[in-house]
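for ur thesis appendix - Endonuclease. copy paste whatever u need, i formatted it the way the template wanted (i think)
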Amino acid sequence: MESWYVYVLKSLKDGKLYTGISRNPGKRLGEHNRGKTKSTKYRRPFVLIYTEECVSLKQARDKEKFYKSGGGREKLKSILPGSSIGRAGGC
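the 3d part is after this line
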């Protein structure tokens, strides 16, 4: 069974983070950087700064939801010191 991943991107344009899920975070990063994602199109380019492997789509969705919550943003701050964490673009 193929894994799912929660990933965090950092915009090099505004420094804000975007959290999402994918089976292939590297490929998904390319899609974000080519403007294929409406919510991030105007914040390009991005770099991939964090991935977390999950055993199921449900677990990945639950983790994504958590990282987009207040407690999850605090956890990301501790994992990714110096990153700008806010609500813009899905975070």
